[in-house]
Structures are given as C-alpha cells and as structure tokens.
Amino acid sequence: MLVLADFPWENAADWTGELRRQATMHQIYVPAEIPDRASIDAAVVWKVPVGFFDGMTNLRAIIVPGAGVDQLTGSDAPFPDVPILRLADPIMATRMAEYILSVVLDHHRQLGRYRDQQHRMVWARHFHRDPADIRISILGMGVLGKKVAEYLRMIGYQVAGWSRTPKTLPGIDVVTGEPALLSLAERSDVLVCLLPLTPATRGLLDQRLFDQLPEDALLINAARGAHLVVPDLLSALDRGKPAAAVLDVFDQEPLPSESPLWCHPAVTVTPHIASLSNPITGVQQIVRALDKIDAGEPLEHVVDRRRGY
Ligand code: NDP
Ligand code: OXD
Questions:
Q1: pLDDT level of residue 87 (50, 70, 90 thresholds)
Q2: CB 219 within 8 A of CB 233
Q3: pLDDT score at 76
Q4: What is the CATH number of the domain that holds 288?
Q5: pTM to 2 decimal places
Q6: Distance, CA 146 to ligand 1 centroid (Å)?
Q7: How far apart (Å, rounded) are the C-alpha atoms in residues 248 and 86?
Q8: Which of 102, 118, 142, 218 has the most beta carbons within 10 angstroms of its beta carbon?
Q9: Are 157 and 51 found together in one domain?
Q10: What is the number of the ligand closest to the CA of 272?
C-alpha cells in the first residue's frame, strides 16, 4: 500500500525511519514526497490542516499515532469517512502508570514540603498517612486508566474508577453516570483524569466537581487540557478544594507564558510528557494495522466516531 506518514513531533524522523524499517510491505511517503494524492491508501497523522485530505479519493483508513484522537476528530479540518484507528500500546499505559504513581507518591510522602524546608534549612518531620487510607479515583478506566489502577493498588492505595459503561475489576469499585461521579469526587483524596476528550467530557473538571472534593485533595490531569476549566480550578485552589493540581496537558500547548498556571504555588506543570508514545512499539501497532487494512481483515482499536473515542 502507499502510506502517507506525517508525524508532527521533534522526533518525527525517528518515527518515519522506524516505519520505513518495519513496514517492508508498504511504501511510506512524507507529505513533501507524495507522488499522487489519489494513490494514497492509508494516512498516519496526528493532526491535520484544513484541506489535508483533499484529493485522497482512495484513502482506506487513517491511523493516529497516539492514544487520543480529539486533535484530529475535533478539528475544523473535514476528514474522509474511513475508519480511524488509534494506538492502544501497553508501553504507553505503563509509562502513564509510572507518571501517576510518581506524582501520587510525591504528594503522599510530602516531598514538595521537604524540598521547600530544605531551601529554608528547616529540619522538621511530618506525619504521613498509610496508603490504605488514601482514596484515589480514576476518571477513565480504559487502556491507561486500568494500568494506572493496577500500579496504585500494588502500593496499597484505595482505588476507584469512573467509566461510561460498567466494569468489574478486582478490588476496584468502578461507577458510571453523573450522580455517581459527584459522589465519587466526595471520596477522592486524589482525582486523576484519564478520559478521552469528547463533547461529553469537555469541561468536566469544573467548579461543580471541585466543590465535592474533600479538603486537601490533589487533582491530576494527564488527559487533555480542555477537560479542565482553568478559571474554576484557580478559584477552587484558593478555597483548598483541590489543595494542589498536577497538570500535564493544556488547552494550548506549549502553555502560553501569560498563563497563571505557570507560577501558581499549588500547581505543578509538566509539558505533556506523562506518556510519550514510543516509536518502536507505536510503529509495531501501526504496521499491524496497515497489514490488516491491506488484507481486508477486521481492524482493531477503531474509533467510534459517534462516541468520539
Ligand atoms: P480508552 O479509550 O482506552 O479509555 C477511555 C476511558 O474513558 C474508558 O474507560 C471510557 O469508558 C471512559 N469514558 C469515555 N467517555 C466517558 C464518559 N462520557 N463518561 C465516563 N467515562 C468515559 O483511552 P486511553 O486510556 O487509551 O486514553 C485516555 C486518554 O489519555 C486519551 O484519549 C488521551 O487524551 C490521554 N493521553 C494522554 C497522554 C499524555 O501523555 N498526557 C498520553 C496518552 C493518552 P468505557 O470503558 O465505558 O468505554
Ligand atoms: C496521546 C498523547 O494521546 O500522547 O497519545 O497525548
């Protein structure tokens, strides 16, 4: 097949090189090299400008080289009515679990407080709770959320989840629906957002939800910036509910220099690194998808356009 590959990241050359190395059955082109737009069978794209797909009359599928697809499906650029596939990479899930676990442990064991004490040369020890007394709720119990839950459970935290459809997972209470979300927030010492960005989840991290949180709660958003209503968070932080927020994703990335989040004492900013997609395992999945498209076999990890994820 003829495949158009357009990776937008700093390490685009690694991805394209890896794709050319692994996809021996297919011809890989970057946008500047496309011979004839009508001959493209599949496109591997993260986000596209308006008109990107014009003339690709024989396109059979679009593959997004990441877990989330909102940057493509939620954009103004019209895209053809072909299946959209995404990555469901176990390595990405593990990386996300490492990130969330490191943030939770840093908060739980008050390392920020000790860093601050060190700067003031203060020697003071503080009580910390047992993991079994810390309630962590994960919004989004998909590929990433489930792995995060597994890591947190391993340490002994109390873990609960929220998803669109019911799930039975050992040792984890998974609830569904909006009333359940609000009561889940009431018992969340840590609230982690790992939801896909869809019309139903945009702006979900808002004042109404923050009002339910217990004192001293921690919010972690590692999903998409548009889940969070920033003015609501800023006023909620003033009231200590949540007491702190760790944000890896932002509506506008890079986070603009004028954003109050940069310098807020209760906010930690990381530059969308919670789980960077991995060129080797990511490309393995892309090639598997290309082979299936080529063979006309049933496709995996197909986005449900109606649901938006
Ligand atoms: P999945 O599609 O595997 O899981 C999504 C989960 O969210 C599912 O449990 C789903 O419920 C639930 N969900 C979706 N809509 C709703 C809703 N309206 N109400 C309640 N629950 C809902 O996604 P992944 O776990 O692979 O990825 C999640 C997101 O993480 C990505 O979309 C992306 O935005 C973000 N991400 C961030 C990264 C980073 O580095 N910061 C890296 C990778 C991804 P159900 O199970 O019932 O379908
Ligand atoms: C993704 C991401 O969705 O890296 O894959 O954010």
A1: very high
A2: yes
A3: 82
A4: 3.40.50.720
A5: 0.97
A6: 10
A7: 21
A8: 218
A9: no
A10: 1
